[in-house]
TrEMBL record:
Residues 4-121 form the Gfo/Idh/MocA-like oxidoreductase N-terminal domain. This is Inositol 2-dehydrogenase. It comes from Enterococcus plantarum. The gene is iolG. The keyword Oxidoreductase applies. GO terms for molecular function: nucleotide binding; oxidoreductase activity. Residues 133-259 form the GFO/IDH/MocA-like oxidoreductase domain. One of its GO terms (biological process) is NADPH regeneration. Pfam families: GFO_IDH_MocA (PF01408), GFO_IDH_MocA_C3 (PF22725). SUPFAM superfamilies: Glyceraldehyde-3-phosphate dehydrogenase-like, C-terminal domain (SSF55347), NAD(P)-binding Rossmann-fold domains (SSF51735). Belongs to the Gfo/Idh/MocA family.
Length: 342
C-alpha cells in the first residue's frame, strides 16, 4: 500500500515533536508538506525533515492534491477553522487538543466531521496511548479496582518554562490553564470512568508570577468535579514545578487504588552519592510522553489505512472543552457551575 502523504501546520515545540515522528518514527506515512508563518520553521522542515512542499497559507496546503492527511498543531483558536477546511478538501485530520475554544464553533466542526464518515478524524489526547495509562485502564476494565469513586490528577509544568510562558500569555490566548493543561486530565476522567462531569468548582492563585493576573492566566489552578454517578475528581494544574515535569494520576475504587507516576521518574536509574539517594525526574512533556506521541501518530495512520475511526472522537473534544470552560467560569465567578447550564 502506498504511503499516506501528510502535511503539518504549526512547527512550535509540540509541532516539531509530531513532525519528527511523522518523518522518522511512523511507518506507512511520508511528511511531505509543512505550513508556518515563520520562515525559519519552514527552513527547518526542509533541512532536517526532508519536507518537499512548504506553505505560509494553510488553505493552499490543504488544497494540494499530493496531501492525503493533515496534522494540526497550530494555536488552539485556529483548530476549528482548520479542521473544517481540511475536511472540506477531502483530507484526513489529526488535530491537537483542544478541538477548539468556543462551543458553537466546536459543534459546527463536529457536524462537518460527521458529514464525512469516510475521512478519519482524530484528536490529540496522547495520554490514552501511553503504556502506563493503558495498563491502568485495562486494570479498571478488568474490575481490579471495583467501582471508581475518586480520581486525583496533577499536571504541573516545570518552572524553567515560566518566563517564556509569561511572554506567550501576554501575546496569545492559550484558553487558560484548565483548557491548556487540565484538559488532558479531564479526558482521562471521562475515559477511565465512562461518565460525564455534571458539576465543577475551581480555584486559582498566582504567587510566584503575579503578573499573570494582568493577562488573565493562572500559575496554579485546582478544580473539584462531581460526575453524573456522584463519583468525584480533583484536578491540580500548575506551571511552577521546580523538580521537573510532574504528571500524576490516582484512581480510587471500592476494591483498591492505583497511581500512575506517583513520582515523575526519568528512568530506572537511582543515583547514590553525597547528595543522598536521588531519582532523576522527567523535565518536559516531549520526554515523558515520547512513546505516546509516536503511538497516537501510528494509530492515526493505521486508521486511515484500515478505513476505521479512532477511539478519540470530536465528541470527546467537545465534552472536554465544555468541562474546561466550566472550570474557567467557576474560577472567575467563584461559583459552582453545572455543566448542562453552559
Amino acid at each position: 500500500m502506498e504511503k499516506i502523504k501528510v502535511g503539518i501546520v504549526g512547527l512550535g515545540r509540540l509541532g516539531k515533536v509530531h513532525a519528527k515522528n511523522l518523518a522518522e518514527n511512523v511507518q506507512g506515512c511520508q511528511l511531505i508538506a509543512a505550513c508556518s508563518f515563520v520562515q525559519e520553521e519552514l527552513d527547518y522542515a526542509i533541512r532536517e525533515l526532508g519536507v518537499e512542499e512548504t506553505y505560509q497559507d494553510y488553505e493552499e496546503m490543504v488544497k494540494s492534491p499530493t496531501i492525503d492527511a493533515v496534522f494540526i498543531v497550530s494555536p488552539s483558536g485556529f483548530h476549528c477553522e482548520q479542521i473544517q477546511l481540511a475536511m472540506e478538501h477531502g483530507k484526513h485530520v489529526f488535530s491537537e487538543k483542544p478541538i477548539g475554544l468556543d462551543l458553537a464553533e466546536i459543534e459546527a466542526t463536529e457536524r462537518v466531521i460527521k458529514s464525512r464518515p469516510e475521512q478519519v478524524f482524530m484528536l490529540g489526547f496522547m495520554r490514552r496511548y501511553d503504556d502506563s495509562y493503558r495498563y491502568a485502564k485495562q486494570l479498571v476494565e478488568d474490575g481490579e479496582l471495583g467501582e471508581l469513586t475518586l480520581m486525583r490528577c496533577y499536571s504541573i509544568d516545570p518552572s524553567s518554562g515560566m518566563e517564556s510562558f509569561v511572554k506567550f500569555a501576554g501575546a496569545s490566548d492559550s484558553g487558560g490553564i484548565f483548557m491548556d493543561m487540565s484538559i488532558h486530565d479531564i479526558d482521562l476522567v471521562r475515559w477511565f470512568t465512562k461518565k460525564e462531569v455534571s458539576k465543577v468548582w475551581a480555584l486559582g492563585k498566582n504567587a510566584a508570577y503575579p503578573e499573570l493576573d494582568k493577562v488573565g492566566e493562572l500559575e496554579t489552578g485546582a478544580a473539584m468535579m462531581q460526575l453524573e454517578n456522584q463519583a468525584m475528581a480533583i484536578l491540580v494544574a500548575g506551571r511552577n514545578c521546580h523538580h521537573g515535569y510532574h504528571v500524576e494520576t490516582e484512581l480510587i475504587g471500592t476494591k483498591g487504588m492505583l497511581r500512575v507516576a506517583a513520582a515523575p521518574e526519568k528512568n530506572l536509574v537511582t543515583i547514590m552519592d553525597e547528595k543522598g539517594v536521588v531519582r532523576a525526574c522527567s523535565q518536559d512533556f516531549p520526554e515523558r510522553f515520547r512513546e505516546a506521541f509516536v503511538n497516537e501518530a501510528k494509530e492515526f495512520i493505521a486508521c486511515i489505512k484500515g478505513k476505521r475511526q479512532p477511539q478519540v472522537s470530536a465528541y470527546d473534544g467537545l465534552q472536554s472543552t465544555k468541562i474546561a470552560l466550566a472550570c474557567k467560569q467557576s474560577f472567575k465567578t467563584n461559583e459552582l457551575i453545572t455543566i448542562e447550564n453552559l
